[in-house]
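Onboarding guide, step 5: your first structure request.
Type a short instruction followed by the sequence, for example:

Predict the 3D structure of this protein.
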Amino acid sequence: MKDTTKRILFTTDGSDCSFAAFEQAIAMAKSQNTGLIFLSIIPPAITTMSPYEGTVVPANLAEISKHKKIAMEKQILARITGVKVDVPFGIEVVEEVSPARAILTRIEEDDVALVVMATHGHTGLKHILFGSTVEKVVRRSPVPVLTVRSLPVPEGDPEWNEEVSTAGPARKGQDG
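The system replies with structure tokens like these:
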């Protein structure tokens, strides 16, 4: 019988940026009296192509993957050591090329009620080059996604330092 308890999914790559949302994830889990899943997506171990030998797969590929997963689990446990979590939690480390796809799969498989993610806040060229896992998840998620900006807005960043108007765009012929 499948456990039908909804959980909160906290995604992390182990970085300081991703843990910016950690406290919010715990607070949300406590307020909803539910469990918390720490999800980390790591890139798969690499195979190489050789024009002479075809695909070269290291003999210990499975061992490499296992060690990468264990290392990430230890990193997450080290980050939460000393923090009063106070809710049931689990740690999942998944190998996947697409972090967004892995997160969306977990939302369905783990019966998630809410996703909590930190955003690195890349803009401009960095956003174009690296894409945004958060953006992909927000657009496709069937459940709410709480995003937490991980870094302060940089001084002098023209994209973030524009004045924001809540009145909407100005129209020709209207006063101020």
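Each response can be followed by summary notes, for example: The two ends are 62 Å apart (CA to CA).
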